[in-house]
Each structure stands twice: as structure tokens, then as C-alpha cells.
Design brief:
alpha+beta, lipopolysaccharide transport protein A fold, 219 residues, 2 domains
Amino acid sequence: MVELAPVRDRPAARASHQGPPPRGKARAHSRLVRVLRWLLPLVMASVVLTLVALVVAHALRRQDAAQRDAATPIEMINPHFFGRDSQGRPYTLGARQAARDEQSFQRVLLSFPTVTLYANGAAGAAATRPSTITADTGVYHEDSRMLFLKGHVRAEDAKASKFAADEAVVNTRTGMVTSPSALSSHTSMGDLQSTGFDVFDRGDRAVFKGGVHARLNTR
């Protein structure tokens, strides 16, 4: 009697006869796994460090730019400041250029300043003739509201009198103008020279001091 043996699955039979993979391939695979275990964390750490370095560098650049901006003086072209003195009378202060002093933000450096003092508190057409003072340079102190003028100081007061000096100080709180330098003036009464002067009430009253020489008109 003939016995028939069951037919085995051929792929399974071949696999059962192949045996384990060669040792060389197993060793190479193990080495690759070990390298990747060390390499991948290093790559991740380097990426994180690079990102941190970029963030720190960006923050330092922004801080440096902010410091440079803070150190750069604020400059203005054709500025005009408006204010009132202790009696409510208006005045205007203009210049071709103005800049904050790097040493003190309370000081404003002016190029070719012009200050106009209005006598009766009205800066319109109904106002009496204003007093106007110009100079080459000026320094305005915002804390004391004092304006120091220097270089070719020229003034024309409310009575159309003209003054010329090397320097002058304008107190915008009181409207008083003083000068310790030599002065020459031309008024409706005549010409006058002195070594100093004080102007009160925005040009309504003037006091000349030191070495006064005058030539008065007879008519």
C-alpha cells in the first residue's frame, strides 16, 4: 500500500533551509545601529545649539541697534515751538535745524534760531508789533526755559528799534532779554552804543549799561 506524504509549502520549505543571515551582515547592521544611536542625538543637539545661537545673536543685534538709536541725537528740520510766559503772553521759537544735546536731553541746540515775543498776548493780526530776535546759534534749556543766543544777534523790538550784539539771553518765562556784550542800536530817537543792555516788557522798556554813547535826533 502506497502512502502519500502531504505536499509542503515551497516558500516555507525554502525559508526553513536558508538558515540565519551571514555574520558579516549582522555585524554591519549592529555597527550602523550603534553609530545612529550616537549620531542622531549629536545632530539634534547641534540643531538646538544653532537655533539658540541664532536667537541670541538676533537679540544682541536688536539691543545694539537700540543703543545706537538712543545715542543718536534727535534732529528736526525747521522746527517751531510755541509757548506762553508767566503772564500768558505767547512766544514762538523757530530755527532752521534743531537737535537734542547728547549730554543732556533738556538742552536743544538750534541753528539760526528766531524767537518772536508778542507784547499784548495775541499772536494774530490784532497784536501790536512783536519783538523778533535772530542769531547764528542758540541753546534752549527746557527746564529753565532760558534761550542763549550767540553770533550776529539781531533784534527788532515792538517800537521798530533795531539792536545788534554778539550774544543775548532770552528768558521766555518773563520775556526779559539781556546781553553782556557790546551793543549798537538804531531807534526813532537816534543811535546808541553800550557794553550791555536789559530789555523789559518785551521791548517796551530798555536799560543800557556801561560805556553808553548816544546820538539823539533833534526832531
